[in-house]
């Protein structure tokens, strides 16, 4: 009797393993690979991501990186949102022939710092030692002029 039950247990395990293999095959048939999507759909998906998510997605694989890096339509809305703070800088970069992605990269940190200055975050700082060094970003004379004008108006 023991031999029969042991043998039927082995059959059950084999049946279970076979069923799981079959279900994996069925599962793979129903999945669509991302690279099988039309480019328009892929771009639409990537255009829904924020900047940080785009950067993370670009390191996922070479195909995603190429798609994200070479598609200005993905970067344009993000760049235009920075334009509210850095209009002159972004317009100058675009007129100089920079792509939307490069323009965004050139102005992203600057827009963060400039926004903080223009919103008055650093208005009550008494000396340069009170400034947080980690978020400072080098800016041109025109940008500092805009910040100075905003401070004088306060």
UniProtKB/TrEMBL annotation:
UniProt keyword annotations, A-Z:
Cytoplasm, Ubl conjugation pathway
Q: Does the keyword Cytoplasm apply?
A: yes
- Where does this protein reside within or beyond the cell? Cytoplasm
Task: Give GO cellular component annotations, separated by semicolons.
Answer: cytoplasm; SCF ubiquitin ligase complex
Domain annotation F-box: ranges: 31-78
CDD domains on file = F-box_FBXO48
Statement: the UniProt record of this protein carries the keyword Lyase: no
GO-annotated biological processes: protein ubiquitination; SCF-dependent proteasomal ubiquitin-dependent protein catabolic process
One Pfam family this sequence matches: F-box-like
Show the InterPro entries listed in the entry.
Answer: F-box-like_dom_sf, F-box_dom
Q: What residue spans carry the region label Disordered?
A: 1-25
Taxonomically, which superkingdom?
Eukaryota
**To which pathway does this protein belong?**
Protein modification; protein ubiquitination
Q: How does it assemble?
A: Part of the SCF (SKP1-CUL1-F-box) E3 ubiquitin-protein ligase complex SCF(FBXO9) composed of CUL1, SKP1, RBX1 and FBXO9. Interacts with TTI1 and TELO2; when TTI1 and TELO2 are phosphorylated by CK2.
What exactly does this protein do?
Substrate recognition component of a SCF (SKP1-CUL1-F-box protein) E3 ubiquitin-protein ligase complex which mediates the ubiquitination and subsequent proteasomal degradation of target proteins and plays a role in several biological processes such as cell cycle, cell proliferation, or maintenance of chromosome stability. Ubiquitinates mTORC1-bound TTI1 and TELO2 when they are phosphorylated by CK2 following growth factor deprivation, leading to their degradation. In contrast, does not mediate ubiquitination of TTI1 and TELO2 when they are part of the mTORC2 complex.
What's the protein here called? Answer: F-box only protein
């Amino acid at each position: 009797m023991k031999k029969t039950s042991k043998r039927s247990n082995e059959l059950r395990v084999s049946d279970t393993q076979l069923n799981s293999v079959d279900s994996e095959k069925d599962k793979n048939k129903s999945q669509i690979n991302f690279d099988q999507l039309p480019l328009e759909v892929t771009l639409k998906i990537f255009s829904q991501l924020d900047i940080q998510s785009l950067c993370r997605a670009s390191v996922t694989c070479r195909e995603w990186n190429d798609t994200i890096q070479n598609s200005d339509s993905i970067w344009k809305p993000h760049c235009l949102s920075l334009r509210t703070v850095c209009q002159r800088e972004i317009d100058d970069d675009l007129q100089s022939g920079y792509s939307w992605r490069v323009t965004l990269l050139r102005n992203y940190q600057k827009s963060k710092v400039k926004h903080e200055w223009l919103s008055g975050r650093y208005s009550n700082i008494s000396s340069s030692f009170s400034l947080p060094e980690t978020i400072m970003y080098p800016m041109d004379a025109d940008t500092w002029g805009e910040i100075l004008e905003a401070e004088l108006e306060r």
